[in-house]
Structure formats: structure tokens, C-alpha cells
Amino acid sequence: MTIKVHEKLLLTGAAGGLGQALRERLKANCDVLRLSDRVDFGAAQPGEEVVLADLADAAAVDAMVAGTQAIVHLGGVSVEAPFAPILQANILGVYNLYEAARKHGARRIVFASSNHVTGFYRQSETINASHPPRPDGLYGLSKAFGEDLSRFYFDRYGIETACVRIGSSFPEPRDRRMLASWLSFDDLHRLITACLTTPVLGHSIVFGMSNNAVTWYDNSQARHIGYVPQDSSDVFREAVYARTPAPDLSDPAVQFQGGAFVRMGPME
Ligand code: NAI
Ligand code: 15L
Q1: Residue range 46-65: mean pLDDT, rounded
Q2: pLDDT of 228-267, one tens digit each?
Q3: Distance (Å) from CA 78 to ligand 1 centroid
Q4: Among 14, 120, 192, 237, which residue has the least CB neighbours within 10 Å?
Q5: Which domain holds residue 90?
Q6: Which residue from 46, 47, 53, 58 is spatially nearest to 14, judged by alpha carbons?
């Protein structure tokens, strides 16, 4: 099956952890991969373009989006933080991105949402896309805003979006919680590819995790995307248990899906 369905694909947040992991992988999905971040990350390689832009700068975002047919939007504040930078990057930034997509005719966006949109569900619960958001902080709240904004742009303008509520995407699970939330880089690429290639995406919410035996997420409402994970955190379980202490069940970070994020108070 060909996965190259877009001529020019934009990847934001290209300098970040996931941006670096996806840079080579996403070249298979397009003729030209346009990479963007606000920080310098080196020159364009063959098959690439580089456009530096701060997401809060509407004119820069407009130029970043122009000429692209689809967007993988990873850029932004990626952890809990004071409201000011979250406001600029994740709220104003996502508005600027969708406005530019509307003006320039980009038709499909994969939005890197987060498990922290629903971080205040318990680790004893299994949730699906119909469960209402329960953000565990300002960061999760900003991702919930991005999900709502993208739904509005679908309803009014027909721009299709997959809101991928990424769990924990790192080379390996770092702790016991991540055994449930882990998403391998290869599965992340499979999931993004599925979002970019499925015939009808509409506005969809999909949880981004590998095929982990213990999980809190039910993706049965995203079958139309066709994502089939190939990796699993299970192969790391023994090693993670050996190097981490038994969980304290009275700790909110152990009770809730958002982990330590639920303990972070309002920030100055
Ligand atoms: P990261 O923090 O390593 O990368 C984010 C990138 O966004 C950085 O290169 C940064 O320079 C850029 N950025 C920040 N503010 C910006 C602005 N105002 N304008 C332009 N660029 C800006 O994060 P990571 O891990 O690569 O995550 C990528 C995306 O996936 C983020 O949106 C994050 O919220 C989301 N995500 C990641 C998860 C993970 O496990 N890695 C889990 C859940 C969501
Ligand atoms: C996220 O949303 C963060 O971007 C990432 O750095 C991890 O903290 C991840 O969630 C997680 O919950 O493990």
C-alpha cells in the first residue's frame, strides 16, 4: 500500500523529541517534507524544506503553511508550564495554524494532543473518545482547546483532523505508568500514516499507544482510521519493575492516569 498521498507535508515541532524521531520516517509519506520549529535545527536535507516560525506569529505561520496539503502539528509547549507560554504556543498558535490552513487550503491535520486532556480519570478506568475531557493542568487544558478548535474548523470549513492523544512516546517506557501509556516511535509513525491515508478521517479522536497489555484507552471508536500497533511495552515490564519501587496507592500520581501531572499546581 502506498503511503505517499500528499505532495507537500508540513511537520511542526521538528526540533523536538518526536520531531526528530519522525523526520526520516515521514519522508515516505510525501514528495517534500517541510520542517518547522521556532529554534534552529540545521539545514534542509534532500527532499526537505526548512521554515523557521514562532507559532504565535500569525504572519510567520501563514508562510509556514502556504503550499502544503497536510500538516502533522507537533509544535508547542509539551509539558505543564506557566500560562503565558502555553497561551502563546498552544492556544494562539493552534488558532494561527488552523487559520492558515483554512486560507491556504490544507485539508488534513494530525494534531498532537495528549493523554493529559483526560489525566484526571483513574488508572482503574478504561476511557474512550466519548468520555468528556478531564484535563490535569493548564497544558492538558490547552490541548483540549486545540481539540475543540479543530472540531470547529471541521464543522465549519471541512478541514479534517485527527486529535492524537499521545500517551508517552519515548524510546522505552521510563516508569511503571508508561507501561500503560507507551507509544513506540514506529507505532507513532504507523498511527500518523493511518491518519494521513484513511479515506475519510472527519474529526476524530484517537489514543496514541502501542499494543500494551495494560492500558486505560479504548480505541474502538477510531476503527475507521485503521491503526494497528505492532509494538508493545510488555517486553520492558520485567526490567521496569526491577528498577522502580512498588507504587504507593495513596499517591494521586498513581491513582490518576495523568501521573505526576495531576500533582502540579497552578504555576506563576
Ligand atoms: P518537545 O518539547 O520535545 O518538542 C516541541 C517542539 O515545539 C520544540 O522543538 C519546540 O521548540 C517547539 N515549540 C515550542 N513552542 C513553540 C512556538 N511558540 N513556536 C514554534 N515551535 C515551538 O515535545 P515532543 O515530546 O517532541 O512532543 C511533540 C508534541 O507531541 C507536543 O505537542 C506534545 O505536547 C505532544 N505530546 C508528546 C508526548 C510524548 O510522549 N513525547 C505525549 C503527549 C503529547
Ligand atoms: C505529555 O503530554 C508530554 O508531552 C510528554 O513529555 C510526557 O510527559 C507524556 O505526556 C506522558 O504523560 O508521559
Answers
A1: 98
A2: 999 999 999 999 999 999 999 999 999 999 999 999 866 5
A3: 4
A4: 237
A5: 26-233
A6: 53
